[in-house]
Automatic annotation (TrEMBL):
The keyword Transport applies. Its main location: membrane. One of its GO terms (molecular function) is gluconate transmembrane transporter activity. Signal peptide: none annotated. Keywords: Cell membrane, Membrane, Transmembrane, Transmembrane helix, Transport. It comes from the Bacteria. PANTHER family: GNT FAMILY GLUCONATE TRANSPORTER, HIGH-AFFINITY GLUCONATE TRANSPORTER. GO terms for cellular component: plasma membrane. It comes from Paraflavitalea soli. This is Gluconate transporter.
Amino acid sequence: MSFIIVMGCIALLILLTTWGKFNTFLAFLLVSILAGILLQLPPDKVIASVQKGMGDTLGSLVIIIMLGAMLGKVVAESGAAQKIAGVLMNAFGPRNVQWALMLTGFIIGIPLYYGVGFVLMVPIIFSVVYQYKLPAIYVGLPMLAALSVTHGFLPPHPSPVALVGQLHANMGLTLLYGILVAIPAIIVAGPVFARFLKQVPSQPLQTFRPSTIEANKLPGTAISFITALLPVFLLMLTTALPYIFSNSTPAVKAALAFVGEPAVVMLIAVLVATFTLGTGMGKPVKVVMDSYADAVKDIAMILLIIAGAGALKQVLSDSGVSNEIAAALRTWPLHPLVLGWLMAAIIRVCVGSATVAGLTTAGIIAPLVVQTNVNPNLMVLSVGAGSLMFSHVNDAGFWMFKEYFNLSIKNTLKTWSVMETIVSIAGLIGVMILSLWI
């Protein structure tokens, strides 16, 4: 009966956000309370459970997500993203323009949230389309595939960061494994798949013709690359240091653990960016700080959605139903990593939001990770891959792609939706291959 109640609550969540057009946070809140009541939690414990879930989830994430938004904002507004794109375009040349844009999307996609990255990168795509007279889909899809993969697989993006927390994974290892899985997925869904789309008609709207920053006002090449990728460098470095200094004193180990905390890593990255791409380029401190305040406003709703997902997870945990479901799922003839991917994929297709799909799945699958001893870092990636499955008409990204590239719904399904599906399946394959050695 408990399993039926949980499935019913998830179905209600889907209906509220799709058919009912409810705000996702409100939908999570209502469904969490209803689930607590139906699962026979004491009335005074239902709200306490909701509050604990929200607090515990945000407590470990809010610093990382906020600082990630600030870093992305300064990378975008300073012109560092434009500089990176220009350098890669010059290095690869017109014949390999797809690969240049794919690499640009991957580098820029790490610090930038998907929506911001999409809006920022589309003018760069269109400038290449107009300059070299190439098909827009052929040129643009590899970059957008890279943005999508970083959004679903890699910290410090909200869903992967939240999954790391809920599944008790390691941020640095998840990032390292995520890059190993992401690269082949992006290549297959980007340059390889796009070669079959040269004949898809697309006339990008003139509204989106690029307005660029003058070249003499852009930051330097080294500063742009180092600042954008600093979180990646630091997370990998701090993940490796404990192994390098395994025989060091307890004080050294404690210092390494402190520096290796993702929140500290992101704080260092933002402070460096504040100077290199902010005050170091002549911007007053107040202007940079105002930009950071705007960045926080941009992601406020994302934080609330994550909090709502945390509330539902805690209700399922406190009622004991998560362990019941995990015990039942253990009997299914599926590998736990495949099961996590499948659950996220089903919710994604129904709800449309990759973040909601990933976080909802994590609340259900977390006990199974403990019971089966599956690698939690790989489960983060498996669920992340599933959360990208078949974007269609209930996903905002689908409509952004359609409108910016001026496509029919049929051609959007043939291009964007298939690309997302390839990314998802390739991601699962990559995770399963890694699981043979890890």
